[in-house]
Amino acid sequence: MSASGGTKAIIAALGANLAIAVAKFVAFLFTGSSSMLAESIHSVADSGNQALLLLGGKRAQRSRTKEHPFGYGRERYFYAFVVAVVLFTIGAVFSIYEGIHKIGDPHAIESPAWAFGVLIFAIIAEAFSFRTAIKESNEHRGSQSWVAFVRRSKSPELPVVLLEDLGALLGLIFALFGVTMAVITGDGVWDGIGTLMIGVLLAIIAIILAIETKSLLLGEGASPEVETQIRTALESAPEVARVIHMRTLHLGPEELLVAAKIAVDHDDTAAEIARGIDEAEQRIRAAVPIARVIYLEPDLDKAAAR
């Protein structure tokens, strides 16, 4: 996985979630809190998700084969989609079920000090992980808003880790709210409410991730800014009169396919056209380094001829 894949952020999140999962489960054993159990499952699911992202990044580096002539770069999109499914099925569905069950059959919180201590520890650890994800994302976000970055990023790992860490922090706050209200009021229903809130939150995040990664799986083109750079590079070649039409497709986060029909002068020889195409490809790669697969089809400039 390249640096833009957010490996550092993934590893930071994985380490934090493994430690937090153990702490939360210990707290559940001492308190019997459904919020703590839901958060334990949430952290286990997140740990599995980060392992899937690392696996996807590793498999995407395989060399192209006869069966897959464009390589395996889009495996990173597949594993990001699997993360969304795992987050929903394991995290959200379990938490919603547990919350409804606890509301229907509430129990008092035992040894609440354990729950408060673990939740505070978990918030600190998740905040560190979230800070790492934000720092890495800022290196690639540019002037985009956070919403635009999540929606337009062609590298799925950072948006996934960002949303997971945000969901983890909010989930911890919901768990703290549920446990605190259950201890203050002596009513275990609040613990169930906190658990239900965690489940709904995870479902929302999972749906957002599924929608965004589905779009990447289906195949997204380059951003308008990148397409403009490619068009400018093409039309700056002396032998290229204009771009008749162009299509782009991300074969992976760092690999772009460019296919274009270009207009050439009807007086140009075959050698001049071939030389012009070679120069145009060089200009594209200089302007957009991720444009690694380029197909240019020459055609007569009929508009100029008329």
Automatic annotation (TrEMBL):
Membrane topology, from the record: Multi-pass membrane protein
Keywords for the protein's UniProt record, in alphabetical order: Membrane, Transmembrane, Transmembrane helix, Transport
All residue ranges annotated as the Cation efflux protein transmembrane domain in the record: 10-218
PANTHER family: HUEL-CATION TRANSPORTER, PROTON-COUPLED ZINC ANTIPORTER SLC30A9, MITOCHONDRIAL
Domain Cation efflux protein cytoplasmic: 223-294
Full protein name: Cation diffusion facilitator family transporter
Keyword Ribonucleoprotein: no
Location of this chain's protein in the cell: Membrane
Transmembrane segments annotated in the record for this chain: 9-30, 77-97, 113-134, 161-184, 190-211
InterPro entries: Cation_efflux (IPR002524), Cation_efflux_CTD (IPR027470), Cation_efflux_CTD_sf (IPR036837), Cation_efflux_TM (IPR058533), Cation_efflux_TMD_sf (IPR027469), SLC30A9 (IPR040177)
Principal place of residence: membrane
The UniProt record lists the keyword Membrane: yes
